[in-house]
Each structure stands twice: as structure tokens, then as C-alpha cells.
Write a structure and sequence with these properties.
The structure holds three protein chains of three kinds. Chain A is mainly alpha-helical. In chain A, strands 1-2 form a two-stranded antiparallel sheet. In chain A, 49% of the residues are buried. By secondary structure, chain B is an all-alpha fold. Chain B has one domain. Helices cover 36% and strands 26% of the residues of chain C. Chain C has eleven helices and 13 strands. Chain C has a six-stranded mixed sheet with strand order 5-6-7-3-8-9, sandwiched between helices. Chain C has a four-stranded antiparallel sheet with strand order 11-12-10-13, with helices on one face. In chain C, α3 crosses α4 and α8 packs across α11. Classes of the chains: A mainly alpha, B mainly alpha, C alpha/beta. Chains A and B meet through α3, α4 and α9 of A and α2 and α8 of B.
């Protein structure tokens, strides 16, 4: 109850802060996305090559190692290994894309570039900053996901029209990881702390049914893996790409959305504490 | 407002104190930097050690043990390995040594010439460019050799080494891999103005090499032109040599080619590194 | 009153940065907060900029409460923070343009305003350069230009010339004079006496979170110092004890004597005459200087400490 009251009080203060602001929430988000586009204009090779990593993994592990693997069963049907790995890479790249923007880049803007201090000297609010930065990382991730999906189609690794929804699903993964990672980044004190990010994401990348099914694990470990956000993302995208959508897919969607929104609220509160003290 | 220095409180400039000297050789100069690098190590080893050790192990478990569990190996399919784990483990050893070394020679070197300018501070003393490069390369060599020794020790119980001396030689091979990546990447970083190029080094150089230089699957499975490219990369030479020792499939001819290639690249990179760093710092 | 504060307080945990101050700044005034590092100037400025909620007391900016209408306040003020918070990923022009858009100003208006401001701070030729390539003085001027993008009614300047070389300082001062002439209300903090004397119509001296004096620069000098000061130095070996002894000898020659680690200050209305009396008393200082009293002397008198130490 106390938490609820605090949340309401925070909400009231936030609406009050917005009072009389010449910039609407939508406009503020648009401006921050546009600012990031301007900043990337000089670094377009970095933007463009960002989509290559999952493609390389797909060819190396999916095709190269795939020549040694017979294939795995998905939804009662055995699919070739590359078709099994590709959705995993799409999900993993959505995670990695969001990760870069919401950890290193966000930390730099927060602690060193003083970029957010600059923005908060204007009518923009902390929620505008959190929402704007997350939106940018989602747009970037969405472009990569769409490009990767085209590669999958070209390699004939997609067997259902549901796959069109793989791009929005990738955005949900970006939302979940972006929100959570930005929130965690506000607690980090130095670059050394990013070691923990590696320690959390490398196992997720390798063990979330990306390269092999969770049947490889003992029962208890399987349950742990099934609760991780990347696993939910991987199976969601795999269900979409193979046309085996079910209630489980809906649960994954809700799970990812909730993670993202919780992250966003935490980010706003932490920015209030850090920058508006 | 400044305080006036009082007599006797300032630093001593007495001519009777021992005179500072120029180092007698490049090695002598590099040794004078040992305390500096020891301090760096003391202050940073915790930060890097977890990912340096844990990441490759996770790859071994995920790819070698778990994915490998689904792979039936036909004789002769995996360059003499009897299991996918035995095939991929030495490959991952060399490939992770590469990523560690590139990590040590990109941003940290840029920091030395651009952000913290530690190399400039070193060069303001009697130390020469060669000593500065040698000390840094030596530091990376020792540090990465220690990390790979741990890695080899952890791999051994998986039964991926056929003999104990094969394991030792596979470990020693990493010294060649370290050299072949340290000096050229150091050189590249020392002359670079804008660090954004590193992202391209990682994405267009390091990751493709990691994935396609025979660590995960035999390069013979690549299309012919790509196979040629893969066989030209330094990582493939490192992977193949490491794997020879691990699997006990040693052949003198190819081994000598690998050693010669890696040593030549180290030497070339050394020459380039000293040249680039001098051009950057002595203007 | 554009800024109105009563009993304004700010604490960070156990640390009291601002301990109950009263401030009124009318439209068109150039108002200064003067004090050493840690006096509470920057904390006060952050509260006025509506980015730091006051711990106690009342604060009204442009008649509004910053706790409730921070965005509306920020829309009408300009902020030049102590550290340049320029956007290093953007060019000089884009820095101004993007920032202007954060205020919700129409594109066309911002574009025109950017050109105007680049000319005003003499950065027209650098419009397409990246911020990283600018000198310290140029960055400062760009930050000032940026703070003017929304035609602010109040311009807040936190240590506007700290860290700049003398020439760059004068360029910045010149631009601030022009703004003052245009009727912009300036509020600035500084620990430079000359800056406060040059720019401020009225100022408060802050020390340890309190306001210890208030008035125009001239009023403060009149009230807390004499017209002139004679400075005496007694060589490098001059120990504190030795200075104290000399101070007793010259005590009768001046209105007031201050002993500093490296010199003695003799306050009187005629410095030359005081100096002649010092020599007549048989004292032989290695160097002497007679100058007009400044705010530095006011500060020394009020707090017993020098400003920059």
C-alpha cells in the first residue's frame, strides 16, 4: 500500500512537472530519437555493420557446424539445424543491440557526457529522457531485426507468414532488455561493473535454446532457463518463424512487456535521484 | 593565493644525489616499466579475470559438451578428433586468446596515446619508444599466458588433450598467437585518431575470424574461395597448431609453416608498432 | 521579483550546503553570488534552475514554484552550467539547433536564432566543426550561446569564466555586458573578485551556506574595507612569527592589518603615506605594492580567509 501511495505521489509530481511545458511527451520522444540519428550520421559504418554479427553467427554455427548436426524437433516437426538456430540469432541480436545502447552508451551519457544534465536544463523531464533513449534503441534494433529476417527469408529458413511478427517480437525483446539494463546501469559506479553484464548475458546467449534445445538440461535447470527473458524471446520468435504459435507465445509477450515497463519506471526514478537531487 | 615555499621543504635538487641515467638497451628500458605494469595489473586483474576465464568455459560447455552431445562424428570428419568437444576445445582456446589480446591492444593503447596519455608520460623520461612498446607487449604476453594456463588446466579433465606434453605445447603455442595479434593491433591502435574504428575491427575482423577460422568447424567445409581466405588468417594458423598438439596429430611440415607465419607476423607488427608510435609521439 | 527566496535551505544527507538564505532579484538586474568553493553557490543555482528541489524555505522563480512547474520555469530561463555540458557527438550548429528544439520552438525560428547567436559569440566560422575541436574559450562561448537560444528572461551563469585564459575571459565578459545592456536579468556565481566587480549591480557574499554581506560592489568595499591597501613582502624566509612581529610594529600606521602567509596587508585611505611611514619606522620590506581595495579584501574581512586558496 505504501508503495502504491508513493507511486501515486510520484505520478502526481511528474504530471505537475509537465504542467505548462511547451513540449509534449510524443514530441519529446521524437526529438531524442532525432538527436541520436544526428549523432550517428557521422558513424554510419558502425550503424550498418551492427547487423552483421548475428548473420556471421548464423553462417558459422547454423551452416558450418549445422553440417554436423542432424536437426531438432520444433512443434512436432524436425527442422534443419540452420532453421533452428536462425530465430535464436534474431532474438540474441535484439538483446545485444539493446544491451549496447542501454549499458555502455547510456552510462557514458549519464556519467561522462553529462548529456542528460543538459537535457534536464530544458523543459524535458526524466521520463522524456528514459522514454526517448529506449525508443531510439528499439528503432535501431528493429531495423537490424528486419534486415536479419530478410536474410532468413533469402536462405529459406522461414516457414510461416507468422514470421512477419518476428520484427515486433524482436522489439519486445529490445524493450525488455533495454528497460532492465538501463535500470541496472543507473546503479553502476564504474566501467568495471560492466563485467556483470557480460557475466549475465554470455550464459543467456549460449544456453537459452539458441544453439540446442533445453532438453539437453536436467529438469530443474530447464525450469531456470525457461524463466529467463532471452529464452522467452527465442521461443517466441521460433514459434513465429515456424508457425507454431500458441498460448505460450502470448505468455512470453506479456512477460517481456512487463519487464520493459518495470525497467522504464525504475529508470525514471533513478534519474530523478541522480540528476535532480 | 599561493603559499610561499619555505627553505628545506621543496624537492631536493642536490647534485650529490644519484644521477638519473639513460637505459642501456631497449630491454633495460622496458624493465624500468615493470613497476608501472605491475601496478596496472594489481588494480585491474579482478575486472578482467572473470570474463577472461568464464566466457571461454561457457563456450566449451555450450558448444563442446551440450551441442556436441547431439553430434555424431564420422571418422575423418573432424580433422582426427573423435568428438566435437575434442575438436572445438583447442579452437576455442586459440580464438579466445585472440579476443583477449585484441581487447588489450585497442582501447587501452588508445588511452595511452590519446586519453590518459600514459605513453607520453613514459616518453618524457629517458625511456625510448621501443622500450615502451616492449613493456606493454610483454605485459600482455605474460598476463594472457597466465589466463590460458588456467584455461588449459580446466580443459584437461574433459579429456580433450591426448597427452600431457601435448597440453603443454598447446599452451605454449598461445605465446605465438598472442604475439601475432598483439603487435599488429597495437600498431594500428597507436596511430589511430578516432576510436570508432575499433568497432569495425571487432565486427569486420575479430568476429568473422573467431567464427570462420576453423575453431568451430573444419575450414574444409567452407566454399573453396572462402577456405583459402580462412587459411590465410593468423587465427587459423594458431588454431591448427594448437589442435595438432591437443589431438596428437602433429606433422612437422605444416607446423613449421604455422610457426613461421605467426613469428613473421609478430615481427612485422613489432616494426610497424614502433614506427607508428614514434610517428604519433615524436612530432 | 523574478527570483524570490526566503529561508532557502538545501541539505545533502548530513551536509548543509545552503543554510537559510533570502534573495530577491528584480527584472533587469545583474546579480552575483560571490564566495569560495563550497560556499553553497552552485547548490543555490541548481535550485533556481529548477533541477534541485529545496529542502526548506520558499522559492519562487518567475512567480512559479519549481517543485510544481519545473518545465514551465525551464522554458523561460537560460542555464550556463559550471561544466560545459555540450553534446560532443554533434557539430557546433547542431548543438544549438537540437537544444533549441528541446524548448519546443518551431524549426524556422530556431534556425534563425542559431545563426544570430553564432554571430553573437563569434563562432560563425566554426559552425560545422565538432565540439571536441573547439578551444576552452570557444566551448564556453558556445555554452553561453546555447543558454540564450530560448530568449530567456533570466540567464543563470555558474562560474562563467573559470578556467579560461585572460583574453577569453574578456571576450565572455564583453558578451555578457551586451546582454545586460539589452535588459536580460543575469544571475551569476563567481569566485573571481574582478568578475563580480565588472559585471554585478548587486551581489551577496556567501560563506559556508550563509549570506554574510549584501550590496553593490562599491557599497561592500566602502563598508568593509578602506580605499587603498599597501602590501608588504619580506623575502622568501619570512616566517609567520616574523610577520606577526612586524604586524605589531605597523599596527598604528593603518586602520587595520592582515597577516597572510606570504605578505602583510595594511588598510588605509592613503596607501603611499602609510608606506612612507613604514619605511620611516626602519622596516625594509623586499617588495611593496599600493593598490585600491577590492572585493577580495571585503571577503578577507568578512570571513578571515582568502577566496582562492
Amino acid at each position: 500500500m505504501a508503495l502504491f501511495t508513493a507511486a501515486v505521489a510520484g505520478e502526481t509530481a511528474r504530471r505537475a512537472a509537465r504542467q505548462g511545458s511547451p513540449v509534449s511527451a510524443v514530441e519529446a520522444t521524437r526529438l531524442l530519437v532525432w538527436r541520436n540519428m544526428l549523432a550517428y550520421r557521422r558513424h554510419w559504418p558502425i550503424f550498418v555493420t551492427g547487423f552483421l554479427e548475428p548473420v556471421f553467427y548464423l553462417f558459422s554455427i547454423g551452416v558450418g557446424v549445422g553440417a554436423l548436426v542432424t536437426g531438432f524437433e520444433v512443434g512436432g516437426r524436425t527442422v534443419p539445424y540452420a532453421e533452428f538456430v536462425a530465430p535464436g540469432m534474431l532474438a540474441a541480436s535484439a538483446m545485444n543491440g539493446a544491451l549496447y545502447d542501454s549499458t555502455f552508451n547510456f552510462f557514458h551519457k549519464l556519467r561522462f557526457g553529462k548529456l542528460f544534465d543538459q537535457m534536464l536544463a530544458t523543459p524535458l523531464t526524466t521520463m522524456d529522457v528514459a522514454r526517448g533513449e529506449l525508443s531510439w534503441s528499439l528503432i535501431r534494433g528493429g531495423i537490424y531485426a528486419a534486415a536479419f529476417l530478410l536474410v532468413m527469408v533469402a536462405m529459406d529458413l522461414v516457414s510461416s507468414w507468422w514470421a512477419v511478427l518476428a520484427v515486433p517480437a524482436a522489439l519486445l525483446i529490445g524493450l525488455a532488455f533495454g528497460g532492465i539494463c538501463m535500470a541496472l546501469t543507473t546503479f553502476m559506479r564504474s566501467w568495471q561493473d560492466f563485467e556483470y553484464v557480460t557475466l549475465a548475458t554470455v550464459p543467456m546467449f549460449l544456453f537459452s535454446a539458441t544453439f540446442f534445445p533445453v532438453s539437453a538440461f536436467p529438469e530443474w535447470l530447464r525450469w531456470v532457463v525457461e524463466c529467463t527473458p532471452l529464452y522467452r524471446g527465442v521461443v517466441l520468435i521460433r514459434e513465429l518463424c515456424t508457425g507454431t504459435v500458441g498460448w505460450g507465445s502470448a505468455a512470453s509477450v506479456v512477460y517481456l512487456v512487463v519487464l520493459g515497463l518495470v525497467g522504464l519506471v525504475v529508470v525514471r526514478r533513478r534519474l530523478d535521484r541522480l540528476l535532480l537531487a | 593565493m599561493t603559499t610561499t615555499p619555505r627553505p628545506g621543504t621543496g624537492p631536493s635538487t642536490s647534485p650529490t644525489s644519484p644521477a638519473s641515467t639513460a637505459p642501456g638497451s631497449v630491454v633495460d628500458g622496458a624493465l624500468r616499466l615493470a613497476p608501472y605494469w605491475a601496478t596496472v595489473l594489481r588494480r585491474t586483474w579482478k575486472g578482467g579475470v572473470i570474463s577472461a576465464l568464464v566466457t571461454p568455459l561457457l563456450y566449451v560447455v555450450a558448444m563442446g559438451v551440450l551441442l556436441g552431445g547431439f553430434i555424431e562424428v564420422a571418422p575423418g570428419e573432424l580433422e582426427g578428433a573423435t568428438s566435437y568437444l575434442a575438436f572445438v576445445a583447442p579452437g576455442l582456446l586459440a580464438a579466445h586468446v585472440m579476443t583477449l589480446v585484441i581487447g588489450e591492444t585497442t582501447y587501452p593503447v588508445m588511452s595511452g596515446v590519446k586519453w590518459h596519455k600514459t605513453f607520453f608520460a613514459m616518453h618524457a623520461t629517458p625511456l625510448g619508444i621501443g622500450s615502451i612498446v616492449l613493456a606493454n607487449v610483454g605485459f600482455i604476453l605474460l598476463r594472457t599466458l597466465v589466463v590460458s594456463a588456467f584455461f588449459v588446466a580446466v580443459l584437461a579433465p574433459f579429456g580433450v588433450f591426448t597427452t600431457w606434453w601435448g597440453a603443454v605445447l598447446a599452451w605454449a603455442t598461445q605465446a605465438l598467437v598472442i604475439g601475432a595479434f598483439t603487435t599488429p593491433v597495437f600498431a594500428f591502435a597507436a596511430g589511430l585518431q578516432d576510436e570508432t574504428a575499433f568497432a569495425l575491427v571487432f565486427r569486420l575482423g575479430m568476429i568473422p575470424m573467431f567464427l570462420f577460422s576453423g575453431a568451430f568447424f573444419p575450414v574444409g567445409n567452407l566454399d573453396a574461395p572462402l577456405e583459402v581466405v580462412a587459411r590465410l588468417t593468423p587465427l587459423w594458423h594458431g588454431v591448427d597448431l594448437t589442435r595438432m598438439f591437443a589431438l596428437g596429430t602433429f606433422e612437422l611440415g605444416p607446423a613449421l609453416v604455422h610457426v613461421a607465419y605467426l613469428v613473421a607476423l609478430t615481427a612485422l607488427g613489432w616494426w610497424w608498432a614502433v614506427r607508428r608510435l614514434r610517428a604519433r609521439m615524436v612530432v | 521579483m523574478l527570483i524570490h527566496a526566503r529561508g532557502l535551505r538545501k541539505t545533502f544527507g548530513d551536509f548543509e550546503a545552503v543554510r537559510g538564505i533570502d534573495v530577491d532579484v528584480p527584472r533587469g538586474q545583474a546579480f552575483g553570488f560571490l564566495g569560495p568553493n563550497g560556499a553553497g553557490k552552485s547548490s543555490t543555482m541548481r535550485m533556481v534552475a529548477a533541477v534541485s528541489p529545496p529542502t526548506g524555505g520558499t522559492l519562487r522563480i518567475l512567480g512559479m514554484d519549481p517543485a510544481e512547474q519545473s518545465s514551465a520555469i525551464k522554458a523561460r530561463i537560460g542555464v550556463c552550467p559550471q561544466e560545459d555540458t555540450l553534446d560532443l557527438e554533434l557539430s557546433v550548429r547542431d548543438n544549438l539547433y537540437v537544444y533549441g528544439r528541446y524548448f519546443g520552438l518551431p524549426r524556422k525560428e530556431v534556425r534563425a536564432r542559431v545563426d544570430e547567436l553564432l554571430a553573437f559569440v563569434q563562432l560563425g566560422e566554426k559552425a560545422d566543426a565538432m565540439v571536441d575541436d573547439l578551444s576552452g574559450g570557444m566551448k564556453r562561448r558556445l555554452t553561453i550561446a546555447r543558454s540564450l537560444i530560448n530568449r530567456p528572461e533570466i540567464l543563470l551563469l555558474d562560474e562563467p569564466t573559470t578556467g579560461l585564459d585572460p583574453q577569453a575571459r574578456h571576450v565572455v565578459w564583453d558578451r555578457l555586458f551586451r546582454l545586460k545592456a539589452q535588459g536580460v536579468t543575469l544571475v551569476l556565481t563567481t569566485h573571481y573578485m574582478d568578475e563580480a566587480e565588472q559585471l554585478c549591480d548587486r551581489l551577496v557574499v556567501m560563506d559556508k551556506g550563509h549570506i554574510v554581506a549584501e550590496g553593490s560592489p562599491l557599497e561592500l568595499i566602502r563598508a568593509h574595507a578602506t580605499r587603498e591597501v599597501a602590501e608588504l613582502r619580506f623575502g622568501a624566509g619570512g616566517a609567520q612569527a616574523e610577520h606577526e612581529a612586524v604586524a605589531e610594529q605597523v599596527a598604528g600606521l593603518a586602520d587595520r592589518v592582515e597577516v597572510l602567509p606570504d605578505r602583510l596587508l595594511l588598510y588605509s585611505d592613503d596607501g603611499e603615506r602609510t608606506l612612507a611611514q613604514v619605511h620611516a619606522a626602519g622596516l625594509r620590506p623586499t617588495t611593496t605594492l599600493v593598490r585600491r581595495a577590492t572585493l577580495e579584501d571585503v571577503f578577507l574581512r568578512l570571513t578571515g580567509r582568502t577566496l582562492v586558496d
